[in-house]
Amino acid sequence: MKLIIINGPNLNLLGKREPEIYGSQSFEDYLEILKKNFPDITLEYYQSNIEGELISKIQEKGFDYDGIILNAGAYTHTSIGIGDAIKAVTTPVIEVHISNTFSRESFRHQSYISPNVKGILIGFGLKSYDLAIQSFL
Fold it and tell me: Which of 38, 41, 120, 126 falls 20 to 30 Å from 32 in CA-CA distance?
């Protein structure tokens, strides 16, 4: 099984950025744990702060991979383009959010991604990525 985790803006700062919301572990460190926990899965990782690069990566992997795990960060609430890219590909996508977006500012309650994904995991911290991987098994 071949999965890709795609993280959007500011997720490169996990472990440094607002640890009271996002925790104190970097995603790169957590990725190593995921790879150990799921040794039979080919797990690729990509992060970008640029919307168009995220769209390009979804299009690139969206016909050949068994699944995409997407945390689009703030683009979740603003990007019709990312939502359209998900709709255009055949690979199923799981939307992931580390924090409970519904317990935060009201603008975070809207997702342009959710209508086009297989499922959504919100508010389980980095464990959301584990749950997303398990959903493909």
Answer: 120
